[in-house]
Amino acid sequence: MKDKRVLIVSSEVIPYLPENELSTSSFEAAKMIHGKGGQTRIFIPRYGLINERRHQLHEVIRLSGMNLVINDMDMPLIIKVASIPKERMQVYFIDNDEYFKRKALYTDEDNKLFDDNDERAIFFAKGVIETVKKLNWAPDIIHVHGWMASLLPLYIKEYYKDDALFSESKIVTSVYNKGFEGSLNKKFVEKIKFDNIDASTIETLSNPNHVNILINAIQNSDAVIKGSEELPSELDEILKATEKPVLDYFPVSEFDTAYTEFYLNKVL
Known about the structure:
The protein is α/β, with parallel strands linked by helices. Helices cover 32% and strands 21% of the residues. The chain has helices spanning 21-35, 52-55, 97-100, 117-135, 152-157, 188-193, 210-219, 233-241, 255-267, and strands spanning 5-10, 39-45, 58-59, 66-70, 73-84, 89-95, 141-145, 170-175, 223-226, 246-247. A hairpin with a 4-residue loop joins strand 5 (73-84) and strand 6 (89-95). The longest helix is centred in the middle third of the chain and has 19 residues, at 117-135. The N and C termini lie close together (11 Å). The relative contact order is 0.15.
């Protein structure tokens, strides 16, 4: 992995959010690449749950200040950055007061999904890509973790398909059991169509539940990793049928060699 550039885009990452399969795997993947001489950049949303003082986040003025258009609304993009202690790994936080200031991840106090989770996912995907463009950092691999990050493959392949920076980038999506009950906003597809993304590429999102969002990510990725030992049966069927490279589940304690070989021999 020496000198390979790997962009890790995740819904959740330790130590900024509670430890679970998703937050741990995305951190450990980045740590493994970094330890083998690769270059990593980690991107996550700056949820209001993240303690900025404790984790020493600071705004990067030269990267902030851009507006992203989400469903015909101008939404300011704020970029914050921190370093993971001991690891010397850079973490970028995509922030916007309207979408990420609230002190919760995806649901309110009644465990009801936020009505704007669809717009938050669109904003996160576009925010990551626009920031990477400003950094002028062309990744060899873009590794996506978690449903909040799962629009990234679609936007790279469709909305940014003519952008030379990503022309050689390969997209890997890790799929996990951790998701949500129910569906996102019924107008999700219309909001994506606003970005002139062809309707034929987002048919699966007409019912934007957790599984369908991941199916769309798989359709727009170059390779897939099973991030959980058990997955919904619909996802298992999709992965059995696909001709794309698929890496079976490996626990964090064992995925060092498996991920490295997969990256180098199946993805690149």
